[in-house]
Specification:
Blueprint lengths: L6 E4 L9 E4 L7 E3 L4 H8 L3 H6 L1 H13 L2 H10 L5 H4 L11 H34 L9 H10 L8 H25 L5 E8 L5 E8 L5
């Protein structure tokens, strides 16, 4: 399955009049102009309840893809380490009498890139937590002060824009967290559930459901 199976191309979108795409669910009116951007398509498909009703398999495929690409999943893979012994998988080399310094340089470069990617994941994950759990305003991430802060802490850090968090990283992480919650709760008995509701600033009603395990998690 691929993202093209989640949408239909349209010559003119309702809002902009430009070429774009619409959700394949017949009752869904969601449209976006532009190319078949996989991030935007999966973001909509993974949260479209109409798609879930009409095409549950495609809805679940989109959600699984989002969760797989989340920072949380990648950090789990980093903590678990390689699945096999890399030394055993590497081809055996003939014995040599002289030292090839290029081999060590390449190994050093690969290790440096791996450590840098790991650090980037952890930094972005902490920023997600600041936004979602501590109320950090995403627009701050685009300020010069924020850029200077991260570069002062580590010049090798890539400063991720707020748009990437809002449209890509946070939606993926939300689905990953939801999937992990389902795994825990589906295998637990005697859950305690509570409900709460309030109004947000836009006067929209907001409800939450809390589930507590017997071990108070």
């Amino acid at each position: 399955m691929n993202i093209k199976q989640l949408i239909e191309r349209v010559e003119k979108t309702t809002k902009t009049g430009k070429p774009g795409w619409t959700c394949i669910a017949t009752k869904c009116t969601h449209q976006e102009s532009g190319n078949n951007d996989s991030t935007r398509i999966k973001k909509h498909a993974s949260s479209c309840l109409i798609l879930a009703e009409e095409y549950p398999d495609k809805y679940q495929w989109a959600r699984s893809g989002m969760a797989k690409d989340s920072i949380g999943t990648k950090l789990l893979q980093v903590s678990e380490g390689p699945t096999s012994d890399t030394e055993e998988n590497e081809p055996k080399r003939a014995k040599q009498t002289t030292l090839d310094i290029n081999v060590f340089k390449e190994k050093g470069r690969q290790k440096d890139e791996s450590m840098r990617a790991d650090m980037q994941l952890r930094v972005d994950h902490l920023i997600i937590r600041l936004i979602c759990a501590q109320g950090l305003v995403p627009e701050i991430l685009d300020s010069q002060e924020w850029h200077d802060l991260l570069k002062t802490l580590n010049p090798k850090i890539k400063v991720t824009a707020s748009k990437s968090f809002r449209d890509d990283l946070i939606p993926k992480e939300a689905i990953f967290v939801r999937e992990e919650q389902h795994k825990i709760l589906s295998g637990t008995s005697n859950l305690t559930c509570s409900f709460d509701g309030t109004n947000v600033r836009r006067k929209d009603t907001f409800y939450t459901v809390h589930a507590i395990t017997p071990s108070r998690e």
